[in-house]
């Protein structure tokens, strides 16, 4: 593992045995490319070359990556480890670690434990008192944050939203007031619906970015308000791996009094639902918030 002191000096690699040909025992999480094969680090390739046992979320993907970089599997075991076989594969990996072997684990793409089955493996190894190390590298979260143009001093990775509309809206609502850039993974098949729900829960004027196929041939970054991005998908849908980022909430430019005044004017001749929808659009406020205020005003009358 690379160590840096307070002066920024990087210390030598401490985990190579004498002679530099063998890894010390332990579990090694390595990050693999999210697109471009050359994004893998030299240290990750060293670990793949020297580990006693190799475990992978997708063994075919990792074998292909190793072939590209000339890393031979030789006679070493390669263990599939993913969401569907964790209960049966995890004990085999832990036994290898308890026998004093070095085990490397790679997710299909990116950094293990980020929306990835490696979490339970790392947790089990730590609980057993076994060494756990990380070789940092590619991450779709950090790559998207870098190119989004949104504030990066504080961010929250939220993972994948729920699939159903009602569950997704409730889930997004819980993030609406968090003072950080929000990062979501989403399927290209559901991203249009997700953005429509984000407009409703966060407000149409929140700044956002949609990143797809990062580091790949058809990489694309769309930036604008949530409303702009949602409208853009109507005419130009996306394919491939998608990351959606949403800016933190900022100080309201519209006071509660202004919102209530606008609602009262419309409630005189419109339904609660229509009044809330129009005011939310005009003032750039979350529709649900405006709808709750409209209900309260309607009850008063």
Structural description of this entry:
- With 301 residues, the chain is an alpha/beta fold.
- It folds into 3 domains: 26-138, Tetrapyrrole methylase, N-terminal domain (Cobalt-precorrin-4 Transmethylase, domain 1), CATH 3.40.1010; 141-246, Tetrapyrrole methylase, C-terminal domain (Methyltransferase, Cobalt-precorrin-4 Transmethylase, Domain 2); 256-300.
- Helix content is 40%, strand content 16%.
- It is built from 11 helices and 10 strands.
- It has helices at residues 42-50, 59-68, 86-98, 118-127, 140-148, 165-173, 191-202, 226-235, 256-267, 272-283, 287-300; strands at residues 26-30, 53-56, 78-80, 102-106, 132-135, 155-159, 181-186, 207-212, 220-225, 242-246.
- The strands form 2 sheets. A 5-stranded parallel beta sheet has the order 3-2-4-1-5, sandwiched between helices.
- Helix 2 (59-68) links the parallel strand 2 (53-56) and strand 3 (78-80).
- Helix 7 packs antiparallel against helix 8 and helix 9 (256-267) crosses helix 11.
- The longest helix is centred in the C-terminal third of the chain and has 14 residues, at 287-300.
